[in-house]
Amino acid sequence: MVLPLCLVLYGVIFLRGFFKKHFTAITGMTVGICNGLFGSGGGMTAVPMLEKGGMEPKKAHATSIAITLPLSVISGMFYFGGGNLRLIEAIKFIPLGLAGAAVGSIFMKKLSNKLLKRVFSALMIIAGIRIFMK
Amino acid sequence: MDWYIICTVAFLTGIFASMGLGGGMVLIVYLTVIEGSSQITAQGINLMFFVPIAMMSLILHTRNGLVEWKEAVPAIIWGAASAALFSILANKMDQDILSKAFAVFLIIAGIKELFSSKGKTADDKQ
Fold first, then answer.
1. Is A41 on the interface with B (CB under 8 A)?
2. What is the pLDDT of residue A41?
3. N or C, fewer C-beta in 10 Å, chain B?
4. Alpha carbon of B16: minimum distance to chain A alpha carbons (Å)
5. Which one, of A9, A6, A16, lies nearest residue A48 by Cα?
């Protein structure tokens, strides 16, 4: 487990500092690693990287989706090839997921999500520890 | 199958996903911890779940002129290569290791979120 983890970490920390010139390419590659390996977390890495590259936050959020969408399709195809894509199990989450996304974008306009962010990050750490201990 | 739990999870995931707080984390954690899916299955479900939601948001964002395609396109091209490579790796990898790696990723992301000094939303700054 050390090897892939190191690759991700190096991707984020090490390369970011070094190749300012190829910043967009590096952002894309890092997002691709998270997207392919973990099936998630692409946006989480893309947004701060795009912001660091000088993009304003709103645009960074929007652009991160433009990047992660095609990457998810590609990763999905390889998951399918590996026999690990259960389309039917995903479908049941989609309708209310869309509703949630609509509500979320209203939230984003109306309220500061500082507290939400704190609570959510604490939950993520707890969940991470729990999965790790499993 | 508890429909109301599924609905709640889906709804929460949608909210967090659209706020850029990592909706995938909610769904994958639910699927692995509560439903007992394997890590790779949960990840696959999350990928598929994300596609329609991303499409909807992307259409809205493009209409609002928020997508910087000039920046996005090279990132997509490079990202496609690494996404392909690492999804093959994820499929071949030992599930236990993958799930541990995901857990570490979750913890790191959580710590980063918790201590990000800016603590801003897309909206606070503009």
1. yes
2. 84
3. N
4. 7
5. A16
Say how far apart CA B85 and CA B3 lie, in whole Å: 36
Assign B119 a pLDDT band (cuts: 50, 70, 90).
very low
pLDDT tens, A5-42?
777 777 777 666 666 667 888 899 999 999 999 998 88
Radius of gyration of chain A from its Cα atoms, rounded to whole angstroms: 16
Q: Do the Cβ atoms of A28 and B58 come within 8 Å?
A: no
Nearest Cα of chain A lies from the Cα of B100 at a distance, in angstroms, of 5
Nearest CA in chain B to A92: B6
Q: Tell me the pLDDT band of B123, cut-offs 50, 70 and 90.
A: very low
